[in-house]
Amino acid sequence: MATDYYAALGVSRDATGEEIKRAYRKLARELHPDVNPDPATQEQFKVVTAAYEVLSDPSKRQMYDLGGDPRGGQSGGGFAGGFGFGDIMDAFFGGGGSRGPRSRQRRGQDALIRLEVDLREAAFGTVRDITVDTAVACPTCHGNGAAAGAERITCTMCRGRGEVQTVQRSFLGQVMTARPCPQCGGYGDLITQPCAECSGDGRVRTRRTLTVKVPAGVDTGTRIQLTGEGEVGQGAGPAADLYVEIVEKADPMFERRGDDLHCTVTLPMTAAALGTGITLETLDGPEAIEIKAGTQSGTVRTLRGRGVTHLRGNGRGDLHVHVDVVTPTKLDPEQTELLTQLAKVRGEEHPTGQMQPGQNGIFTRLREAFGNK
């Protein structure tokens, strides 16, 4: 999105909800069309209103921080997405009627960790133990936040309602407004003696070990969701989710392309000309491969079903074996004489090296091997 909503409101990216609301109130008093009818100012008012719509909503703000578009592609103009005059009044004057005290419980934040696996583990799946540092319910106060034997008392300022009401005069007239109680923070009660272990938060950080089942066929970027294994929220609120992102380590022998694997086998010129048999180490163990006489460099042998397991579906990818024929660069006199005699026998003493139409060269065979004929 082109507009930086934080910059539009003039707040930092870690601003609290109250700081965002104060910033919007200040700008709204200056930019509201009833106060300043200038067209340029009205456009700016639409931008700051859109910014407040997103940043005042925790779910929309989280989506925006992750790079998403919480307004569904809407422009900064108007009050789309259900954000209308009542919302402006709420932000401008601190809210309308009584909403009651806020709960001290909050859902925890989702967490993301990365897990490295090798090619074999990615192809066939595995079970791994991971260690995470996360927030759990305080074992001393069990999320209550108060010390043992201590009680919460009703807030004397708001009398347990969690908000205080005032009458304000504005250009719209006399308006009854409500805002969170500054003494209790909107909770309606006060903790006189916070728990010494969690300082009243209701949770502490600890290290846990979790067992993760990695399904067959994962690749770099695959995410595994562990529901309820994220951090516990404030006041021992509901636990969030933990996401495990897979990172596949490079394999020294095989190159992965989707669910297919590719490897290269080098052969001496004589073996390629006469034919031979080789043993190739696959993910399933040693496998014998026949090299036919006259095999050319660039030839591709395909072993069906020897690749990576399909993550969503049955079966596996293929293993493509690329043959690289090595021409000797240093010959002793005896070897030179033998190859010279072979060239005479085959009539290849003075080859022209001319290409003929329709001749399938190495690049043609490579294209055919990958289905791009």
- Order of strands across the widest beta sheet? 10-11-15-14
Q: What is the averaged pLDDT score?
A: 83
What summary fits the major beta sheet? 4 strands, mixed
Helical content class: 10-25%
CATH topology of the largest domain: HSP40/DNAj peptide-binding domain
State the gist of this model.
With 373 residues, the protein is of the alpha+beta class. Helix content is 23%, strand content 27%.
How does this structure look, described?
There is one protein chain. The protein has 373 residues and is of the alpha+beta class. It has 3 domains: 5-93, DnaJ domain (Helix Hairpins); 111-139 and 202-248, HSP40/DNAj peptide-binding domain; 255-369, Urease metallochaperone UreE, N-terminal domain (HSP40/DNAj peptide-binding domain, Sandwich), CATH 2.60.260. 23% of the residues lie in helices and 27% in strands. The protein contains 9 helices and 15 strands. The chain has helices at 5-9, 17-31, 39-55, 58-65, 85-93, 119-124, 269-274, 333-345, 362-369, and strands at 111-117, 126-137, 152-154, 163-170, 173-180, 189-191, 203-214, 223-226, 242-248, 255-257, 260-268, 276-282, 285-291, 300-303, 319-326. The strands form 6 sheets. It has a 4-stranded mixed beta sheet with strand order 10-11-15-14. A 3-stranded mixed beta sheet has the order 1-9-8. Strand 4 and strand 5 (173-180) form a beta hairpin. Helix 2 runs antiparallel to helix 3. The longest helix has 17 residues, at 39-55.
